[in-house]
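DM from R.C. (forwarded with permission)

"hey, sorry to bug you on a friday — could you get me a structure for this? deadline for the figure draft is monday and I only need the backbone to look sensible"
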Amino acid sequence: MENKKEPTIDTEQLANECVAICEERKAENVILFDVREKSILADFFLVCSGTSQPHISALSTHIRKTMMAHGISPKGQDGQAESKWIVLDYGDILIHILDPETRKFYCLEELWDDRKIVYQQKADDEKQEPVDNGN
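My reply, with the result:
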């Protein structure tokens, strides 16, 4: 009897796919941190803003659908669009979707070193490129 190994899913690729969903669905101020060296909770930490409660809900729904298509269910979810903050916990990827005011109040980005940013959304008139932080 042959032991078959489950295919491994590249966490960084999935995190970047979540970034793409946020971009496609018009999330604002999308930032992806690589926290593998700094956190035991996750490898990647994604923060983005939704412009309204329906927008926050839609972002969460589309991320969940995409991850489910990969056979990945969240280990946990906290908050609802009405709370202005949804957290999706995929183990290696933590996704925070907040309204701009709540995000400004909690300053989640300040938890991590700017050198750990692997993606940061540019303004609409700027060309988007991955962040080169010398790592």
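R.C.: lifesaver. Helices lie at 11-24, 53-69, 100-106.
me: no worries. The domain at 11-120 is CATH 3.30.460.10 (Beta Polymerase; domain 2).
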